[in-house]
Backbone:
């Protein structure tokens, strides 16, 4: 070690030194073994040593294979199940680790010994045989496989398996094609540990199968007969076998980049096929007015008529996850639905219930005339885009988009071209940006030509330009294909752009639902207005049925049917608030004010103004119109603020379930 390296080690603190002491202790026996090289060389020619080595190699390999064949499926079941019984099973699997090996051998003899039922049934061949050695080794080595595999299966992102189910893969296919491959490193580590444990097993083996000699038993016999000199040679062989196995474990396969099927040079992109016609269905759900929705067969104000060939969506969900309960019922009149709400509202749970990932008991779902309630996820013919792209790390882009059970290769090629990622089809997921991964996941979902597209926060976490581009692309996709869709989001602009009907929810229940125009123009509660991004939320007192007193300022409003003297929440969209300099104080809804702040957002201009005794509001105008007067709107200057009576939304404060954030 160089002087600078030694100095860095000293400055690193006590942790490296403490770890180094353990390494030194583990190396000392190896140093001692090397010092006795002259003694153990002669022992390599001892009679029976080669046979004992072969027995240990053979039985350890058979035992590890048995542990893998039986333990990996068991680990998968334990990892996937949340039942208490599986927790008990997991504890039982760990028991051999807590038992001394000799006691394990005694327990095994009581089950498979010559005088037991099993022993007599096999003619006494379960002990003092290769079979007996394997039985002893499996008992003590199996926990290593189960524990390692269970940890590997548990660490798999749940969204990956959910997405695999929506691609049409059944349980066995998800295990074989996804879980097993993703958990392979952990399983390999467990199998290696199991092999090493079986190879070195002595206590249970010497009780159950003294003959034929395994290498540990042979070493014990040699040590008892001739001392340490004769026991050195088998110890060296055991050490060599362990080093070889551990060395092989450290090898990493060379990464091979596989290229998918390329688009034909000069090939044109064909028009995208639309989903086949689906007859409309009368909504089967009626929801009470207490914080929920009733949908009739007639289109309400602001709604759009159901076009021929579209499939409305009906859902009735009542599902518990621990202490959280999701209760949501709605029947749409149009094929494009958005579920809007804050984090923790239950939006993603709703989408998973629609996909059937909680089973048929969680939700009643229909798409057009097709009842999906009892249809397994893999047979619902869905396109599912979770919050994370959930791409398989071992598949390139082409393999991702064509991996659906009924994916159409020609459709996959068209979607790759349509989404601008056809040149990336040979890349693996870790070679893609976040936006590219989202596009791949969307192409994968669409390559099956699904009947229903489920989008869970599809644009969250992306840079603004990428998010804006993908938002427009998604809108075009929904317009061109005609397939039904449900999008989960917390962004009201995204909901308005990608859906015709909106369900607003919080804490597992519906706040308001209906056609997009109706919801945005008439929020049912202050919290709904806040979720829709309507700012300028204030509190005041009704002076008359058409006047509000807020911080000494009297606002004129349309008759809200609220009696004078009642405390109310009110808000007004920032786009409806006008701010001018030098205008006359005439007309209804005009107030003197002072400019507090001016923010140039490029396309828009935001202006904060103060009215009366500390009432602060925000005004938003387009950048072009704003810049014409920007030189007159400076912080501290006087201005005239216009608040149209028809733009003010008012709610009784007593009716609000939750106090909104005032701004």
Residues:
């Amino acid at each position: 070690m160089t002087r600078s390296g030694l100095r860095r080690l000293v400055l690193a603190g006590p942790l490296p030194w403490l770890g180094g002491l353990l390494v030194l202790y583990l190396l000392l026996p190896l140093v001692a073994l090397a010092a006795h090289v002259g003694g153990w060389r002669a022992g390599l020619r001892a009679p029976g040593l080669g046979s004992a080595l072969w027995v240990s190699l053979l039985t350890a390999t058979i035992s590890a294979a048995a542990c893998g064949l039986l333990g990996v499926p068991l680990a998968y079941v334990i990892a996937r199940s949340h039942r208490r019984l599986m927790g008990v099973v997991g504890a039982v699997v760990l028991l051999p680790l807590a038992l001394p090996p000799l006691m394990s051998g005694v327990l095994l003899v009581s089950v498979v010994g010559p005088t037991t039922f099993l022993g007599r049934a096999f003619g006494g061949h379960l002990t003092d045989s290769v079979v007996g050695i394997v039985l002893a080794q499996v008992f003590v080595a199996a926990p290593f496989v189960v524990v390692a595999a269970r940890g590997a299966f548990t660490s798999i992102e749940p969204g990956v398996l959910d997405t695999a189910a929506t691609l049409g893969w059944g349980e066995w296919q998800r295990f074989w094609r996804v879980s097993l491959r993703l958990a392979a490193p952990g399983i390999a580590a467990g199998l290696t540990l199991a092999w090493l444990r079986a190879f070195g097993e002595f206590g249970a083996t010497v009780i159950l199968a003294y003959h034929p000699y395994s290498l540990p038993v042979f070493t014990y016999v040699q040590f008892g007969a001739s001392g340490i000199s004769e026991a050195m040679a088998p110890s060296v062989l055991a050490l060599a076998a362990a080093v070889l196995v551990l060395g092989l474990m450290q090898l990493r396969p060379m990464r091979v980049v596989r290229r998918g099927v390329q688009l034909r040079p000069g090939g044109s992109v064909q028009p995208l096929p639309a989903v086949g016609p689906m007859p409309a269905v009368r909504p089967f759900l009626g929801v009470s007015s207490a914080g929920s929705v009733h949908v009739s067969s007639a289109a309400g104000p602001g709604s759009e008529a159901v076009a021929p060939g579209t499939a409305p969506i009906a859902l009735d969900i009542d599902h518990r996850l621990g202490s959280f309960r999701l209760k949501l019922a709605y029947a749409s009149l149009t094929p494009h639905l958005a579920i809007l709400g804050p984090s923790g509202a239950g939006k993603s749970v709703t989408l998973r219930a629609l996909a059937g990932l909680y089973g048929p008991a969680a939700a009643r779902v229909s798409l057009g005339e097709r009842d999906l309630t009892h249809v397994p996820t893999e047979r619902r013919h869905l396109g599912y885009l979770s919050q994370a792209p959930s791409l398989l790390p071992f598949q390139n882009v082409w393999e991702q988009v064509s991996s659906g059970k009924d994916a159409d290769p020609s459709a996959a090629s068209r979607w790759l071209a349509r989404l601008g990622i056809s040149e990336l089809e040979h890349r693996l997921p870790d070679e893609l940006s976040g936006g590219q991964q989202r596009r791949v996941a969307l192409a994968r979902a669409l390559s099956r030509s699904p009947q229903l597209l489920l989008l869970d926060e599809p644009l969250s976490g992306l840079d603004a330009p990428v998010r804006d581009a993908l938002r427009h692309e998604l809108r075009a996709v929904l317009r061109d294909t005609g397939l039904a869709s449900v999008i989960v989001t917390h962004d009201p602009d995204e909901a308005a752009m990608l859906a015709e009907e909106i369900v607003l929810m919080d804490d597992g229940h519906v706040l308001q639902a209906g056609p997009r125009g109706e919801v945005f123009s008439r929020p049912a509660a202050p919290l709904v207005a806040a979720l829709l991004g309507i700012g300028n939320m204030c509190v005041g007192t009704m002076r008359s049925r058409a006047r509000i007193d807020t911080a000494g300022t009297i606002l004129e409003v349309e008759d809200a049917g609220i009696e004078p003297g009642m405390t109310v929440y009110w808000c007004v969209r920032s786009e409806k608030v006008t701010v001018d300099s030098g205008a006359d104080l005439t007309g209804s809804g005009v107030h003197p004010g002072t400019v507090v702040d001016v923010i140039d957002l490029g396309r828009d201009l935001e202006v904060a103004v103060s009215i009366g005794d500390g009432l602060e509001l925000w005004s938003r105008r387009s950048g072009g119109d704003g810049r014409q007067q920007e030189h007159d709107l400076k912080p501290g200057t006087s201005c005239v603020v216009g608040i149209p009576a028809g733009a003010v939304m008012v709610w009784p404060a007593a009716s609000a379930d939750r106090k909104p954030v005032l701004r």
User: Anything to note?
Assistant: Confidence is low (pLDDT under 50) at residues 256-309.
